[in-house]
Amino acid sequence: MSKAGFVAIVGRPNAGKSTLMNHLLGEKIALVSQKANATRRRSQAIVMHNDNQIIFIDTPGLHQKEKLLNQFMLEEALKAIGDCDIVLFLAPATDKLEDYEKFLQLNKGLRKHILVLTKIDHISQDELLKKIMQYNKYSDQFEALIPFSVNKNVGTKDLLDIIVKYLDESPYLYNPEDLTTEMVRDIYKEFIREGIFENISDEIPYESDVIIDKIEEEKNLQRIRATIIIEKESQKGIIIGKNGVAIKRIGKYAREKIENLSGTKVYLQLFVSVKKGWSTDKEFLNELGYQL
Ligand SMILES: Nc1nc2c(ncn2[C@@H]2O[C@H](COP(=O)(O)OP(=O)(O)OP(=O)(O)O)[C@@H](O)[C@H]2O)c(=O)[nH]1
Ligand SMILES: [Mg+2]
User: For ligand 1, atom 23, which residue shows the shortest CA distance?
Assistant: First the structure.
């Protein structure tokens, strides 16, 4: 009998959660950015490992909640912990132990967890050993400690093997051919948001969001129309850029990601709309898919 179950990926903003999920899936479906607080909602990837089915839940970073949108983001992470069979707590190998200690308090031993030290390519072997020794004072709390690096491709097999040990025997929960439970429009939205994170600086990535207005499918071609929502009139010029150069860059960036995933040609049309105070407007957040 094979096993199947849910694994929540949690940790501070920028810990490498979405990167790890994409890596284990072998496909890019989740937004990744150098800037923290990029992921805003849960998303799920279905990974088959030796005939077992692991459903990974990527989450927004654990952070202080102030604004309404941040509150939603934190709740998303907490729900994922509540809904899973085992948690992966991700800590960048360069971090002090503080965030992990906070997680231990938050979790209160409710969910078993595996500690994953991410981005170990940033430190030397000696530093890694020291870090592991520091974490070992909590070895009665975690099920395993796995050093991980996407760049060096370290840790993938160990991590998948250990996770399976903690899953129950179960029929598959989803079609094993599927990569994700997400709707394509939600993935496309994230690719456009990633285009904004990559190409526009300062606060705009945090003060913007994206609505996919429509997707029309023709033979080997998808026509996608989407609107970028921003907070302020003054941001319009920046997001469009001189002669439309910035919005073209965002569009090109997202189009390539969508084409890679879908294998079709994509015609992507982007519009911009100002919606003052959208991130504190509960009804509008619901429309954007952030159900509070
Ligand atoms: N060098 C190195 N960089 C990594 C590794 N994993 C992730 N990164 C980088 O770390 C940054 C953050 O990665 P994300 O996957 O977006 O982090 P996250 O935890 O999902 O962040 P939030 O969604 O904001 O909470 C990106 O620039 C990644 O390319 C790694 O193994 N090595
Ligand atoms: Mg993320």
Answer: 39
